[in-house]
Structures are given as structure tokens and as C-alpha cells.
Write a structure and sequence with these properties.
Oligomer: single chain
Order of helices and strands: EHEEEEHHEHEHEHEHEHEH
Radius of gyration: 17 Å
CATH class: Alpha Beta
CATH topology: TIM Barrel
CATH superfamily: Phosphatidylinositol (PI) phosphodiesterase
Largest sheet: 9 strands, mixed
Number of domains: 1
Amino acid sequence: MLNVEPGRFLILGHRGASAHARENTLEAFALAAEQGADGVELDVRRTADDALVVHHDAVLADAGPIVAMTLAELKEVAPHVPTLPEAMKACRGLIVNVEIKNWVADPDFDPHERVARATAAWLDAHGWESHAVASSFNPQTIDVVRSGWPRLATAQLLGRAMVPIEELAEVAGRGHQGVNPNYESIKNVADLVLAARAHDLWVMPWTVDDPGAIRNLAESGATGVFTNNPAAAREALAS
């Protein structure tokens, strides 16, 4: 289980250092580490032959749905897209928030949660239980991880239309460790952090690049932040 040092504020590169490198690539993950990030966030999907690959969108703009291609076909048209093992190797030594993509409107929607199970099993088998978090917007997806792989930390992603403070009791009741809310949906950071602590939940908002907002999160006791620019975030905290 992920064990965050009390008082430590985590900077996680959103899809790597995506302000300066192509998102969700090995280069973006390596650059995030160079910029002083404590970790990164990345997105996992599946190919037609059930390979786990790291990409945000379900559909490649000029090649179609990822789920309609085998891994070999995907590598042919988009060699920059890493597999999950390739990405995790590049992130060794970092905390990694693995967002499992599984939304009903996407072409790769999977009600049987194959990606969740395969991702959790891979992380558990490869010793990532103390450095990885599984998250998803789909509650069922992270519930599957929580029930099947209790050594892995799990967090509920909350969308822009949700009121984070109203979701805490339900998320905690399902046994998860954190909430990752959209920053713009938070009315008062300090109040949210205080309420989350009462439920033993961490708060790591996405996606924040404004230096003042990052300082406010740190000063209010949030566990961390997802940012496109880890270097600027580190500078903001030092100023």
C-alpha cells in the first residue's frame, strides 16, 4: 500500500511532463523525473489482443480505435505509444498513478473489467504495491481492484460536475484511500482536506499549473497535485 510521508506534498506529472514533451510517452515520464516530480500519472487501455498500453484517448486521430488494433499494428502506426511494462520501467523510482480507462461511451468499454484486473495483477506481481495507485472515473473499475488486490492503493477520480466534499463518505465506505477531484470543482481546499482527513482519505486534485493554486494546495494540507509542468510546480513551492 502506498505510504505517503506525513506533511510531504507530492508533485505528479500529468501524463508525464506534458507541458514540455509528448504526453504519455517514455520521454515525458523521464522528463518529469528530471524536473523533480515525485511521480507521474498515466492512462491505461487495451489493444485487440489485450495488451496493456498507455494512451489517453480511445481513438487515434489518424488510425482509429486502439481496441481495434493488435499491439503490433498499434506500434506500426503509433510507435510512441508505450506498453504498460515499458512505461513502468521508465517510471522506476517514481510514484505512479495508473488511471484505468473504462468509460461506457468509449469503444473499448469493458463491463467485465479485464483491463482493471490485468493492470492490478501486473502491478502486484512486479512489486509496485508501495509506489502505485490505481484510479478511475468508473467506480466499478477501482472497486474491482480494491477487492481483488488489497495491497494496491486506489483512488476515485471525480469529474468537473461533481462536488468533491459530498463524495467523501461514499468513497471511503468502498474502502478506497483517496479522491482525485478536478481542481476547479473545489469550493474551498482547506475545508475539503479537513473533511477528507476525517475519512482517512488523501486529496490530490487535477490538473493544476497555476503557481498560486499549487501553493494553496500545499499550504492547505492536500496530499499532492497533478500538474503538466513539474518544474514550475517545484519552483512555486520553493518561492
